[in-house]
């Protein structure tokens, strides 16, 4: 299922605007902050889908019963761009366990690329609720590669993917491969360039958050 979190106007639209704006996004601190903010909003929305049970708490004047979630959350970030988004989710799911995957585009001289995955670490996923963080969902190849790598750590009970900007092509690709995944995104863009960059997109989230990397 695809959840388009900006379809109904909210404060999230302001943060999305600033992430896309080619002038404002030059402020790396603000860019990371806005990714973090949208991570918090996504966490709140995802929390509505979790399982809950009543817990009694003693107040100064009596006893109150409050429903709290009993889901075991595992957050998994695709490095490096996913980190600010990851920590936004972690601020709300503060008891979650954490995994990390290094998945990136390895470009070739002919203009093609493949997704390289050189490192992964993750707790056991059996009976967990897995949330994968990746700010840009373009072709969906990084999510596919990440799901393949994480299968070595057990079978999650439920999987969520959180992105900021997604392409329609990538969303449809992931839906076909993983029909039970819930995808939470703040923008759905129609176009991919010949090099599979999202248009209008917002640029390279990793570079904008942490500075440019040396190209091979």
Describe this structure in words.
The chain has helices at 12-20, 28-47, 83-92, 141-150, 168-177, 205-210, and strands at 2-4, 52-59, 62-69, 73-79, 97-107, 113-121, 129-133, 136-137, 158-162, 165-167, 182-185, 187-189, 191-192, 198-199. By secondary structure, the protein is of the alpha/beta class. The strands form four sheets. A seven-stranded mixed β-sheet has the order 1-11-9-7-4-5-6, sandwiched between helices. The mean pLDDT is 91. It is built from six helices and 14 strands. Strand 13 and strand 14 form a beta hairpin. The radius of gyration is 18 Å and the shape is globular. It has one domain: Rossmann fold.
Distance between the termini: 37 Å
Helix vs. strand class: alpha/beta
What is the percent of helical residues? 25-40%
Order of helices and strands: EHHEEEHEEEEHEEHEEEEH
**Number of structural domains:** 1
Largest beta sheet: what is the strand line-up? 1-11-9-7-4-5-6
Q: pLDDT average, as an integer?
A: 91
- Rg over CA atoms, rounded to whole Å, is 18 Å
Gross morphology: globular
Count of beta strands = 14
Largest sheet: 7 strands, mixed
CATH class identity: Alpha Beta
Percentage of residues in strands: 25-35%
The DSSP helix count reads 6
Instruction: Please name the CATH topology.
Output: Rossmann fold
- CATH-scheme architecture: 3-Layer(aba) Sandwich
The parts where pLDDT drops under 50 for at least 5 residues are none
């Amino acid at each position: 299922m695809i959840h388009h979190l900006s379809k109904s106007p909210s404060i999230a639209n302001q943060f999305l605007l600033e992430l896309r704006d080619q002038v404002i996004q030059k402020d790396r601190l603000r860019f990371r902050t806005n990714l973090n903010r949208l991570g918090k909003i996504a966490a709140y929305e995802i929390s509505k889908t979790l399982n809950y049970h009543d817990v009694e708490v003693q107040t100064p004047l009596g006893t109150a019963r409050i429903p709290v979630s009993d889901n075991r959350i595992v957050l998994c970030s695709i490095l490096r761009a996913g980190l600010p988004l990851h920590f936004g989710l972690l601020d709300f799911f503060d008891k979650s366990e954490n995994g990390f995957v290094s998945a990136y585009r390895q470009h070739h001289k002919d203009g093609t690329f493949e997704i390289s995955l050189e490192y992964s670490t993750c707790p056991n996923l059996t009976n967990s609720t897995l949330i994968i963080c990746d700010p840009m969902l373009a072709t969906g190849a990084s999510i596919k590669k990440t799901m393949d790598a994480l299968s070595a750590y057990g079978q999650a009970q439920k999987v969520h993917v959180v992105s900021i900007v997604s392409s329609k092509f990538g969303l449809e690709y992931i839906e076909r491969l993983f029909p039970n995944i819930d995808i939470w995104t703040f923008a759905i863009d129609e176009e991919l360039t010949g090099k599979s960059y999202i248009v209008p997109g917002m640029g390279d989230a990793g570079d904008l958050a942490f500075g440019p990397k040396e190209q091979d």
